[in-house]
Amino acid sequence: MIVAKQLRKQNIIQYLLYMWQVEDLIRANRFDPEAIRRNVVGRYDQPEEAKKEIVQWYEELIEMMRSEGVKENGHIQLNKNVIIALTDLHLRLLKSPKEMVYSGIYYKTLPVIVQLRTKSGGQELPELETCFSALYGYLMLKMQGKEISAGTLEGIQQISAFLNLLGEKYHQDMAGELELGN
Predict the structure, then answer these.
(1) Interhelix angle for 2-10 vs 12-28, to 10°?
(2) What is the pTM of this model?
(3) Does the pLDDT value for residue 106 go beyond 90?
(4) Within 10 Å of residue 172's Cβ, how many Cβ atoms?
(5) Contacts 24+ apart (CB under 8 A), 97-105
(6) How far is residue 127's CA from residue 141's CA, in Å, rounded to a whole number?
(7) 71 to each of 33, 68, 80, 126, 135, how far by Cα in Å?
(8) pLDDT in tens, 56-66
(9) Which alpha helices (DSSP H) does 40-149 contain, by range?
(10) How distant is the alpha carbon of residue 107 from its chain centre?
(11) Cβ distance 108 to 155 under 8 Å?
(12) Confidence of residue 182 (pLDDT cuts 50, 70, 90)
């Protein structure tokens, strides 16, 4: 909860990846608030009052995941809304004559996205979700200490550059500092 609040303000890309990890943490703890309290919240160096708030946050997420039918896989609407907002901004940026650098980075990333979608086994994810899935998968491989090929690393670096720029534009937009001139 504390990390999520901070990331949402500072880096929307890292926020979404963090929230996907939280969803997986909840799944790994079998939607059991006691297990989360013991295995996750218990490790936080926070006062008891803050820990209670964090447990409540996890319990609310558990309920969202259950009610939205994403116990096995998928993402809660809260996280989908971030993708929707980023997609809306992405499309506005592509239409803007002032955003040639953004368009250039996107079109440089597009072959990587197409390649990933081809490898996904028929799973048709929207472009941005494909990018996030690739980054998340990369982070999971890295955490597991698995070897990552040079080609994969190159693709991840391109996707990261693209999403980082989109994230910067998102925060500029939220601050009212983005002038697209459409």
Answers:
(1) 150
(2) 0.93
(3) yes
(4) 13
(5) 97/181, 98/179, 98/180, 98/181, 99/169, 99/180, 101/165, 102/165, 102/166, 102/169, 105/161, 105/162, 105/165
(6) 21
(7) 14, 8, 15, 21, 22
(8) 999 999 999 99
(9) 48-67, 77-95, 100-119, 127-143
(10) 21
(11) no
(12) low
Query: Which is it for the CA torsion 46, 140, 124, 92, positive or negative?
Result: positive
Amino acid 113: pLDDT? 95
Cβ neighbours, 10 Å, residue 44: 13
* Separation of alpha carbons 97 and 21, rounded Å: 36
Burial (CB count <10 Å: 0-12, 13-18, 19+), residue 129: middle
CA angle 77, 81, 85 (to 5 degrees): 170
Residues 87 and 128 sit within 8 Å (Cβ to Cβ): yes
Which two tokens mark 12? Answer: 């929307």
Half-sphere exposure of 82 (CA within 13 A, CB side): 24
- Predicted local distance difference test score (pLDDT) of residue 178: 96
The two structure tokens encoding residue 2: 């504390």
Q: Residues 109-160: pLDDT tens digits? A: 999 999 998 887 656 788 999 999 999 999 999 999 999 999 999 999 999 9
Residue type, 10: Q
